[in-house]
User: What shape does this take?
Amino acid sequence: MSILLEAEHLTKIFTQRGKNPFKAVNDVSFTLKKGETLGIVGESGSGKSTIAKLLTRLTDITEGTLKFEGKDITRLKQSQLKEVYGDIQMVFQNPVGSFDPRRTLGDGIGESLRNRGMKKADVEKRVAELLEQCGLEKEYAKRYPHEVSGGQCQRAAIARALAVEPKVLICDEATSALDPATTQSILQLLKDINKRLGLTILLITHEMEVVKRICDRVAVIDKGELIETGSVSEIFSNPKTALAQIFIQSTFHIELPQEYMEQLSAQPSAEKNKPIIKFEFTGRSVDAPLLSHASKRFGIDFSILMSQIDYAGGVKFGFVIAEVTGEEDAISEARFYLIDNNVKVEVLGYVE
Ligand code: ADP
Ligand code: MG
Assistant: This one.
């Protein structure tokens, strides 16, 4: 895969009068390959939007080099950037605010085409095509931004970004203001565009959930620094940093029912001796029916209380929480067997 965008040691220092200079982006290097979907994930304030602004040169680069298709664009003037600009388009969190409220969506989507001298009839045709590509009927061209839902408006914003046939689409928290179902449909649209048009996508988000759905690779940003990068399956199966682990865990919703929590005792006793165990499966866990094997081999039983198994980047991962019954020694041996097969085992407490 050839490299489209190359960031080498990018640093951004904001200087404001009366304040200490602030390093919002610190020595960040990564490449964006043609046709891939790269996720940049980080907490709020970690410097994600600043990175997006550096890549689009909406803000000056303090240090480092930025190359687009091998060409150094770090210090190009705004006038020289025009050509490159069309190739890099952005979609933001608030689509409604990005359209002029007094003009129709069709007007907004077609603007860049009119600016390029396209004839009125051709613009209309192309706008209808773009809307269709983004899952909206052509009637939406006549609507105003306040006459559509957030998800529909985001679709229109994506259509507008696609109008100039860019090479890269940078989405900065493009789904963060949407409900979960609409988020899924927009992510599906992005994946579809990526596959169908071969468009390269840089997806910036604070939600690992979003990355898990559609990205090929992921970069984790913490306090302006890139701390971990790899394929989605690599990061999900073997996260190296605590932050990546926290992001991955945030994609699961682990909460035992309240009545169970109340019964749970931290130590085993004569009456409370059944362990409640959480088994965590990562991409490194051996892909075999491990609980079933353990049950037969050690003569123990698992009563599953809660479970969530998911796929990302082609690997299976997730957790099972179960009440385990059997001889103490057998349970202990089963734990070692599972640990040997790369399952993380954690005793949450004991019940009757
Ligand atoms: P994120 O998008 O990850 O939430 P941002 O890139 O928006 O984070 O911001 C990173 C840090 O840089 C924040 O602490 C923010 O306050 C600071 N920052 C962003 N833009 C400016 C600016 N123009 N001047 C000064 N500080 C800024
Ligand atoms: Mg941001």
In short: The radius of gyration is 25 Å. The mean pLDDT is 92. DSSP finds 13 helices and 14 strands in the chain. The pocket of adenosine-5'-diphosphate (ligand 1) is lined by residues 14, 16, 22, 24, 42, 44-50 (CB under 6 Å).
